[in-house]
Design brief:
The protein has two domains: 86 residues, 3-Layer(aba) Sandwich (Glutaredoxin), CATH 3.40.30.10; 116 residues, Glutathione S-transferase Yfyf (Class Pi), Chain A, domain 2, CATH 1.20.1050.10. It has a four-stranded mixed beta sheet, with helices on one face. It has seven helices and six strands, in the order E-E-H-E-E-H-E-E-H-H-H-H-H. The chain is of the alpha/beta class and 242 residues long. The radius of gyration is 18 Å and the shape is globular. It is 41% helix and 7% strand. Strand 5 and strand 6 form a beta hairpin.
């Protein structure tokens, strides 16, 4: 029996009792429940960046989805049981009532965006949608992923997950990270958010990426004052604690 295929996840003593608490926001909270009364299950990975992206997104939407924790430190995502859920063996993954699974953080967010379009976090109108997509991809490809390369190839806790660790690859990515932070800083000079005047999924990706600098033993340069101002603002949103 697959231990992951369980009912509602519950956590005793936790602040959210196993559910996402979005805090005060512009929309009412939506509890996602399937037609047969069963709940969706979101397989979560704690403070790992991609599961956190989904949790922040859901909190911004005011959506509550039952969580099933996957212990990455114990390599639970590498087990045959979890591979039956997601053969790529990564989190997050969203289990639907028919047994199908949606994996990849942005794919999960787009699924909920289609179900609950308000407030819009992927842009409104052709140009805004394209700009959100552009900046989300820029922040993934030029910031989040390179930071992950540094972390995975240098941190002792990653030795069993990143085999072999290649410190030279980590070093090669460090100047790329700093170069993109300069680009982002210039883009944020005259606007409050990553893709324009509205908070979007691009800000979620950027927030998670910048927060990931710390475990990678990097930091935003003091010269990037606009990035620091933006990061402080998005970090102050209730959803950022997710």
């Amino acid at each position: 029996m697959n231990p992951f295929r369980v009912g509602r996840w519950a956590q005793s003593g936790g602040k959210t009792n196993g559910q996402l608490d979005p805090g005060p926001g512009p929309v009412d909270r939506v509890v996602v429940q399937l037609d047969d009364g069963a709940d969706m299950i979101l397989y979560d990975g704690g403070r790992a960046p991609n599961p956190r992206r989904v949790r922040i997104y859901l909190a911004e939407k005011g959506i509550t989805v039952p969580l099933e924790p996957v212990d990455l430190g114990a390599l639970q995502h590498k087990s045959a049981d979890f591979a039956a859920i997601n053969p790529v063996q990564r989190v997050p993954a969203l289990l639907l009532d028919d047994g199908s699974v949606i994996a990849e953080s942005i794919a999960i967010c787009r699924y909920f965006e289609a179900l609950h379009p308000e407030p819009p976090l992927f842009g409104v109108g052709a140009r805004a949608i394209a700009e959100v997509e552009m900046w989300n991809r820029r922040l993934e490809l030029n910031l989040l992923f390179p930071i992950a390369h540094v972390f995975r190839n240098t941190h002792p806790a990653m030795r069993e997950l990143e085999v072999p660790q290649v410190p030279a690859w980590a070093e090669a990515n460090k100047p790329r990270i700093m170069a993109f932070l300069d680009i982002l800083d210039r883009a944020l000079k005259d606007r409050p958010f990553a893709a324009g005047d509205r908070y979007t999924v691009a800000d979620i990706t950027g927030l998670v990426a910048v927060d990931f600098l710390k475990p990678a033993k990097l930091m935003v340069p003091e010269t990037c004052a606009n990035v620091r101002r933006w990061h402080a603002a998005v970090s102050a949103r209730p959803s950022a604690s997710g």
